[in-house]
Design goal:
- The complex is a heterodimer of chains A (about 170) and B (about 190).
- Chain A has about 170 residues and is an alpha+beta fold.
- Chain A has helices spanning about 5-35, 50-65, 120-125, 125-130, 150-155; strands at about 50, 75, 80, 85-95, 100-105, 110-115, 135-145, 160-170.
- Chain A is elongated, with a radius of gyration of 25 Å.
- Helices cover about 15% and strands about 50% of the residues of chain B.
- Chain B has helices spanning about 5-25, 80-90, and strands at about 30-40, 45-60, 65-70, 75, 95-105, 115-130, 130-145, 145-155, 175-185.
- In chain B, strands 1-2-3-5-6-7-8-9 form an eight-stranded antiparallel barrel.
- Classes of the chains: A alpha+beta (about 170), B alpha+beta (about 190).
- The interface of A and B includes residues 96, 157, 162 and 166 of A.
C-alpha cells in the first residue's frame, strides 16, 4: 500500500472508531435515561374519559360484578392501572405535609380521591392555584383502586367510598 | 329531702351526665394520607417504596382499627422495579388492595384529650395477595393537639402471602421485608 493510501485508511479507521464511540455513548446514555425516567399519566393519553359521577358509578358496578373483593378489572387490568380523565366539582383541596395535594371530587366522603405528587405540584403551581373548592376541574390520573368496604361503613356510621386516582395532573 | 327537690336533683344530675358524655363524644379518627414504606436491603441491592395514600379509621373507644392500602400507590425509585413488583410479585391487578383489620389493646387507659405518648400492642389480620396473615406488633401513639400520630414497624416475608420471588433475584430481595407505618389521624367529623 502506498503511504497516501495508508494515511487515508488510518483517517477512515479513526473516523469509524470515533463514530462507534459516539454512537455507543449515545446508546448507553439513552439506556440509563430510560431506566431512570418515569412515565407518568401526564405523559400518556387517557384511556377512559368520563364525568366524576359516571366514574364512581362504573367503578362500583365493576367492583360488584368482580365479586366485591377489591378487583376492578375494567379499571386495573392485565396491563396495569388505566389512565383516567375525569371532570367534576371540587369538594375539598388540601396540601399535605409531604408537599402532595389531595383533591376530592363530588364529596369528601363519597367521590373521587385524587392525589397530585409534590414534584408535579411544584411544576404546575400556577395551574393548581387557580382552582378552589366549588370549581369544576378536569383531572387525569392513574386509577389505583376502589376504597370501600362494609367495615368502614360500620365503623363510621356513614358511607366512605372513593375511586382513587394517583399521579394526577389538572387538564386545562 | 322533699319529693320535688329530689326529682330536680335527679334531672339535674342526668343533664350533667349527658353533657359530660357529649364532651368526650370524639371517638372516631381518620386519615386518608397515611404513610407506609417498605424497605429491603441485601449486599447486592437496596429497595425502598413509599405509599402516602393509606386510609385508616381508628375508634378510640373500642380500639378497633382498619387500614386500606392500594399496592399501585407504592412508588419505587426505579420504574422497572415498580413494574415487576406490581405485575410479577404482588399481582396488583388481581389483588389491588391490602387490608388490615385489628385492635389496639388497652385503649381505655389512654386519655385522648391530653397530649402524651403511649406504647400499645396492635394485633389483627392483614390480607394481601389473597392470603390472610396474623400480625401482632407494638406501636406508638403520640396524642398531640387533638391529633394522633401512630407509628409502627414490623417485617413480613413474601412467603407468608404466597408471593413468588424467582431464584434469579433471590439475592436482591431481603427475606424479612421491613414495613414502616406512620399515620396522622384527625378527628372524624360527620
Amino acid at each position: 500500500m502506498t503511504s497516501t493510501k495508508k494515511r487515508i485508511l488510518y483517517i477512515i479507521l479513526a473516523l469509524a472508531l470515533t463514530g462507534a464511540l459516539a454512537g455507543g455513548g449515545y446508546v448507553y446514555y439513552a439506556f440509563v435515561y430510560m431506566q431512570n425516567h418515569r412515565t407518568t399519566p401526564a405523559d400518556l393519553e387517557p384511556e377512559i374519559t368520563l364525568s366524576a359521577e359516571d366514574l364512581l358509578k362504573q367503578v362500583e358496578e365493576d367492583w360488584a360484578k368482580a365479586g366485591k373483593t377489591s378487583a376492578i378489572p375494567n379499571f386495573i387490568g392485565e396491563d396495569g392501572a388505566k389512565i383516567i380523565q375525569t371532570t367534576g366539582k371540587i369538594a375539598s383541596k388540601n396540601a399535605e405535609e409531604s408537599g402532595n395535594i389531595t383533591i376530592n371530587l363530588l364529596s369528601e366522603a363519597v367521590g373521587i380521591n385524587c392525589q397530585l405528587d409534590s414534584t408535579s405540584v411544584v411544576e404546575n403551581k400556577a395551574t393548581i392555584d387557580k382552582y378552589k373548592v366549588g370549581d369544576v376541574v378536569t383531572i387525569k390520573g392513574k386509577c389505583t383502586g376502589f376504597d370501600y368496604d362494609e367495615e368502614s361503613f360500620e365503623m363510621l356510621g356513614e358511607e366512605n367510598k372513593h375511586v382513587k386516582l394517583s399521579e394526577c395532573v389538572i387538564i386545562e | 329531702m322533699k319529693m320535688k327537690k329530689k326529682k330536680n336533683l335527679i334531672l339535674g344530675f342526668m343533664i350533667l351526665v349527658a353533657f359530660a358524655a357529649n364532651l368526650s363524644a370524639q371517638d372516631k379518627y381518620i386519615t386518608k394520607t397515611g404513610h407506609v414504606w417498605i424497605h429491603s436491603k441485601t449486599p447486592v441491592k437496596e429497595i425502598e417504596a413509599h405509599n402516602r395514600q393509606i386510609t385508616s379509621i381508628l375508634d378510640v373507644k373500642t380500639g378497633d382499627m382498619i387500614v386500606s392500602c392500594f399496592l399501585i400507590d407504592f412508588k419505587f425509585d426505579n420504574q422497572l422495579v415498580e413494574e415487576h413488583f406490581n405485575e410479577n410479585y404482588v399481582e396488583s391487578a388481581k389483588y389491588p388492595k391490602v387490608k388490615f383489620k385489628g385492635k389496639v389493646e388497652n385503649v381505655a387507659s389512654i386519655d385522648f384529650t391530653k397530649n402524651g405518648t403511649y406504647k400499645r400492642m396492635v394485633s389483627g389480620v392483614m390480607e394481601m395477595h389473597g392470603k390472610a396473615v396474623n400480625i401482632k406488633k407494638e406501636g406508638t401513639a403520640v396524642v398531640k393537639d387533638g391529633k394522633i400520630i401512630a407509628k409502627a414497624a414490623f417485617t413480613v416475608t413474601a412467603e407468608q402471602f404466597a408471593i413468588v420471588i424467582p431464584e434469579i433475584v433471590k439475592d436482591k430481595i431481603q427475606k424479612d421485608i421491613e414495613v414502616n407505618v406512620e399515620f396522622v389521624y384527625l378527628p372524624f367529623k360527620k
